[in-house]
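agent> Task received from the user: take the single chain below, predict its 3D structure, and emit structure tokens. No templates, no multimer pairing.
agent> Plan: (1) validate residues, (2) run structure prediction, (3) serialize to tokens, (4) report one or two observations.
agent> Step 1 OK, no nonstandard residues flagged.
tool_call: predict_structure(input=
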Amino acid sequence: MGIGTERNKLCYCGSRKKYKKCHFGREQEDPLKVSDVVQAEKAAKKKTCSHPAKLQCKGPIVRAHTVQRALLEQIAQSGEVYGIKHGVAELRRAGGRLEMRKLGLSAASTFTGFCAHHDKATFAPIEDHPVEPTKFNALLLACRALSRELYAKQAALTLSPIIRQSDRGRTNEEQVAIQKFAGEFTAGIDVGLRDLAYHKGQYDKILVSGDYSKVRGLAVELSALPEFMTSGGILPEYSFSSEVLQNLADTKTLEWISFSLISSKGKGLAVFSWLDDPPQRSCERLVTSFSSLPTNEQSDALTRFIFEFFENVYISPHWWDGLDVKSRSALTSRLYTAAHPAQVRDAGCLLDDGLRLVSYHVDQAIVL
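)
tool_result: status=success, residues=368
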């Protein structure tokens, strides 16, 4: 491409510009500066309150924790936990690899998504008290997770232009690969935003009304403090038995389920939560497939689930550093899939991989 009539064709990158006015000569341009990427990432991190009652907002926008700081302190070492440091600049620094980094507790699991009043008043029941396995607490965990997921995807979408510019100074083959990734990345974010916005509206109605009858969930009590914690939500894709739950390429609104693994009363508490109006069959089938596993396999199944689908994971340094290279590599590979929306999963991603990495077991599961 780039000679004769090829120059007048529409550019392959999807910009709708002619090739001669878009990617022609891109390999001769100066590479994107890391400072430009860092500036774009800072601009993408908006400060906004996600609570539906915005007229009641008070105080500044704060760094809200998706996993309570007090809980992270229980697995921290010298005030730090392991986690993924997100961003295009971080990936460039690491040569495209996903690296586990030590993060201070003031930064781990935070996002600027609530005003001081709503962060405190709304989430006090799960911040200031042990988290009991109730519908109300499951709703609060889900609302915070959903707000963070929506915030993160909105920020990611604003980075699409800078990702497309990252092919400056690269070979033609590299440019094609980068533009292909950027297109898939943006398409995935667009679909995610569509579905998350819908579910956010549904959860906001319940939060305001105080009627929790449509909340469904499963609370799994563990025998000991978990070695890692997370809070997030997914569009269920595959079950624990490799059943296809829903096609993520479907044009209809996809179902969403929240999940949190936290500490309560010095032990672990895992909470699946979804809404039952309209019935969320893929969510029910996911949780049923987990409940159908032998009890002695469920704690390891949760580990696979968390690292496969959630990038918002915070890990005990003592535990992570004690893993062998094979185990760390397997978990990092799963996290890479979780952190990149364009990555394709295998239907058997949650099947037993033979790794036995956690010391706790499931005490009981409570249907909410």
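agent> Step 4: summary for the user.
Residues 1-30 form one domain.
agent> Done.
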